Amino acid sequence: MSRAVALDLAADRLDQVSRSEGENRDWRKLARDKQKPPDGDDWQIWLLMAGRGFGKTWTGANWIIEQALSQPDSEWAVIAPTFRDVRKTCIEESSGILSMLQPGELVRYRRNELQISLSNGSTIYGYSADQPERIRGANLHGAWCEELGSWRYEETWHEGLIPALRKGINPRVVVTTTPRPTKLIKHLTKRDDGSVYITRGSTWENREHLSEAALRGLQARYGGTRLGRQELEGELLEDIEGALWTRSVLDETRLRHRDEAPDLARIVVGVDPAVTSKPGSDEHGIVVCGMDAEGHGYVLGDFSLQGTPNTAVRRAIQAFNAHEADLIVGEVNNGGDFIESLVRTVSADVPYKSVRATRGKLLRAEPVSALYEQKRVHHVGALPELEDQMCDWTPLDLDSPDRLDAMVWAMTEMFQLGGDTWSGMYGHRNCPSCERGYMPIEGRTKCPHCGHPIAEVA
User: Fold this and answer.
1) Where are the domains of the chain?
2) What is the 3-state secondary structure (H, E, C) of the chain?
3) pLDDT confidence of residue 324
């Protein structure tokens, strides 16, 4: 029976796997300087903030095993964003705890309970950060916290973990995380009492242990973006004053895997066409969004590109088919009228709706930004270029954020925000003639903008 499917594994069934994959007890000889714990006894929290692929999980797994084996009959915690992250990433993957254990060190691994019993009587318990109540009442000698920047609830740290650190002479915590500007991480980085030791590192420092294909993939996905400075270089990026979106909000509501999203009731492809297709022109914004039955939105993919109108339309239809979408919605301002005719040429059966911006970008974006603040919109995975535009753009900017506009059009259509203003959320209607918004009030029979007859309020 494989380790991945067994519910309760004894030591003799894991020894061979652990021996072949781990080199644990000499791990400090193998570790780079930044992977070694700080010297001295003053620190309580080691905050290791580094880019993807740095070797953070390997470091955390080796550290907690070392600590648990050096203190007989001690109790330790491994906490990650979700139950799946604890089991799959921290415990069972090739850089996890089971692979780092040496023969004779493991007594039993209870997979359903996330409980690892060691030969010296010590126990390592796994906890999901999504369930802060499970940690309360624990008596811990220390803990390893994985991806703290992705924890949904801050109380898991303040009300769960910290009060549970009450055993041993000097309870300590190692935090291994990609840097994200959450309130908790910023709080830890600003502590100046000597209790927090900070180590920073980049993806490239571990390139000898990463495949060239993996490095190329990371570079292609994140290279040249502001988000790449966070995900690859390990920088802690501060939010931009005046921006409608913050990275902390995006990270707090993010779904890391597509299978975490529920069934979607509607899927829309938003298109913000570029005016020209010359070198240096804006991109064609093409973003796919979905909505579930509970009224939550999901940004599923960013297919934006620079190219000809025909290339953009084919890419939009590709996104439509790949996500089994219901509608393509495209802006017709600034020369975008070609989109519908090209869509009909390429695929006559694709449902398409034209939208026209009668208000500024700020008024269109504000209602969508409010949905994010209400925790009603979730990004599925990382969308670096789109998220850079969202978190960098302020109402004072004059440039055209194409990916952002495409996302806003899709969300506006799905949530029926309408009217390009806040009032669209409170019953605003659009005139069938000029398409501008108006508030239906008693006695109003004509559009206040163009005079076209409109239906009276019932």
Assistant:
1) 8-221, 247-427
2) CCCCCCCEEEHHHCHHHHHHHCCHHHHHHHCCHHHCCCCCCCCCEEEEEECCCCCHHHHHHHHHHHHHHHCCCCEEEEEECCHHHHHHHHHHCCCCHHHHCCCCCEEEEECCCCEEEECCCCEEEEEECCCHHHCCCCCECEEEEECHHHCCCCHHHHHHHHHHECCCCCCEEEEEECCCCCHHHHHHHHCCCCCEEEEEECHHHHHHHCCHHHHHHHHHHHCCCHHHHHHCCCCCCCCCCCCCCCHHHHHHHCECCHHHCCCEEEEEEEEECCCCCCCCCCCEEEEEEEEECCCCEEEEEECCECCCHHHHHHHHHHHHHHCCCCEEEEECCCCCCHHHHHHHHHCCCCCEEEECCCCCHHHHHHHHHHHHHCCCEEEECCCHHHHHHHHHCCCCCCCCCHHHHHHHHHHHHHHCCCCCCHHHHHCCEECCCCCCEECCCCCCCECCCCCCECCCCC
3) 93
Q: What pLDDT digit, counting tens, does each position of 177-207 carry?
A: 998 888 899 899 989 888 999 999 998 888 8
What is the chain's Cα-based Rg? 26
Q: Which residues contact 438 (CB under 8 A, 6 or more apart)?
A: 428, 429, 430, 431, 444, 447, 448, 449, 454
Per-residue pLDDT tens digits for 220-256: 777 777 677 878 888 787 777 778 898 888 988 999 7
Question: Looking at domain 247-427, which CATH architecture does it have?
Answer: 2-Layer Sandwich (3.30)
Cβ pair 367, 201 in contact under 8 A: no
Q: Are 266 and 290 in contact (CB under 8 A)?
A: yes
Instruction: Give the number of residues written for the chain.
Output: 458
Q: Which CATH superfamily hosts domain 8-221?
A: P-loop containing nucleotide triphosphate hydrolases (3.40.50.300)
Distance CA 12, CA 16 (A): 8
pLDDT over 70 for what percent of the chain? 82
